[in-house]
Design brief:
Layout: E1 6-11, H1 19-31, E2 37-42, H2 44-47, H3 57-70, E3 78-82, H4 88-97, H5 102-107, H6 109-117, H7 124-139, E4 144-146, H8 152-169, E5 177-179, H9 209-217, H10 238-246, H11 252-261, H12 267-293, H13 296-325
Parallel strand pairs: 1-2, 2-3, 4-5
Helix pairs in contact: 3-12, 4-7, 4-13, 7-8, 9-12, 10-12
The structure holds tryptophanyl-5'AMP (TYM).
Tryptophanyl-5'AMP binds next to strand 1, helix 1 and helix 7.
Length: 328
């Protein structure tokens, strides 16, 4: 079958993945596998920009790839590998940095946010983070990049860098488009910030039913609804929003929304029902995860094979890039 194009995406090795990763990105990684030629990467070099616990990189990589496979990413269909195992990306990063204006980097909202988060560790790698990301995407000549909404500015940046490179050196690199899911921004348990592990406002996709129940019970609902007898507003309730995605019974979340508006159901009751549905929806992933866990070596074999296949594409791109740039 002729594939529609090349997909590339990456994620930092943050260990067990959360519902935001699943609904914003992994869902599309899986969905695109049949129609596209897919390359998925554990971006361990990117993780170095923020991570103090670098000794966790190995176990975090393992846990993340377990989640990927249990969600349906398939090494027979896609290349799955670790960024640092194909070091050509650092070479392309250096070359792309020469066509990157400093002002573009320091103005990016993601950079400003990191400066706020870690004022004592504003390193050069943090500023160059989007250049390394552009190098990831360009190295594998991806035209389609499944990501959550927070990564869209990085994709816009990548497109501009690719355009600048091509206008200077010829049409060598491919301009990529972001591909979002229907749920590109999942909010955390607090209902205020985007779901993320660093804010500890997440639910892991590998969580047990008990862990799910515990986490769901802490979720913030409609803040204006103080008593069970108050009518609620499901449109701004994160439990309702997530329940619509994971509900097991057609029409049930509409019923709940109606009842909520008339104080016919309480938040605690609704959370219990959501937690049950979520645990049930994630059960097949938990089961597949347990199977993969029985053979840890298999994960590392998959990543080694992925690096070999990714390296072939990388060599080809770098040959053309170096020639275009005029490196002797
Ligand atoms: P990272 O590791 O933060 O997240 C991995 C993917 O999960 C998505 N995501 C979310 N989507 C919706 N709602 C949320 N709450 C949520 N949290 C995370 C992210 O948008 C992302 O798609 N810079 C990237 C990694 C990267 C990359 C790349 C991505 C490096 N090189 C090249 C694409 C292409 C990052 O830190 O993602």
């Amino acid at each position: 079958m002729v594939k529609k194009g090349r997909v590339f995406s990456g994620a930092r090795p943050t260990g067990r993945q959360h519902l935001g990763n699943l609904l914003g990105a992994i869902q599309n990684y899986v969905a695109l596998q049949d129609e596209y030629d897919c390359v998925y990467c554990v971006v361990d070099l990117h993780a170095l920009t923020t991570l103090q616990d670098t000794h966790l990189l190995r176990s975090n990589t393992y846990e993340m790839v377990l989640d990927w496979l249990s969600a349906g990413m398939d090494p027979d269909k896609s290349i799955i590998f670790v960024q640092s195992h194909v070091p050509q990306v650092t070479e392309l990063h250096t070359i792309l940095s020469m066509v990157t204006p400093m002002g573009w980097l320091s103005r990016l909202p993601t950079f400003k946010e990191k400066v706020r988060q870690q004022p004592d560790n504003v390193n050069y790698g943090l500023l160059g983070y989007p250049v390394l990301m552009a190098a990831d995407i360009a190295l594998y000549r991806a035209d389609t990049v499944p990501v959550g909404e927070d990564q869209v500015p990085h994709l816009e940046f990548t497109r501009e860098i690719v355009r600048r490179f091509n206008s200077q050196f010829g049409q060598v690199l491919v301009e990529p488009q972001p591909k979002l899911t229907a749920t590109p921004r999942i909010m955390g348990l607090d209902g205020v910030h985007k779901m993320s592990k660093s804010l500890d406002n997440h639910i892991e996709i590998a969580a047990t039913p008990e862990e799910i129940q515990k986490r769901v019970m802490t979720m913030v609902t409609d803040p204006a609804r103080r008593y069970r007898s108050d009518p609620g507003n499901p449109d701004i309730c994160n439990v309702h929003i997530l329940h619509q995605i994971f509900s097991r019974t057609p029409g049930r979340t509409d019923e709940i929304a109606h009842a909520c508006r008339h104080a016919g159901i309480g938040c605690v009751e609704h959370k219990r029902e959501f937690a049950r549905d979520l645990a049930e929806a994630l059960a097949p992933l938990r089961e597949r995860r347990a199977e993969f866990e029985r053979d840890p070596d298999r994960i590392w074999d998959i990543l080694a094979d992925g690096a070999r296949r990714a390296g072939e594409i990388a060599d080809q791109t770098m040959g053309e890039v170096k020639e275009a740039v005029g490196l002797p």
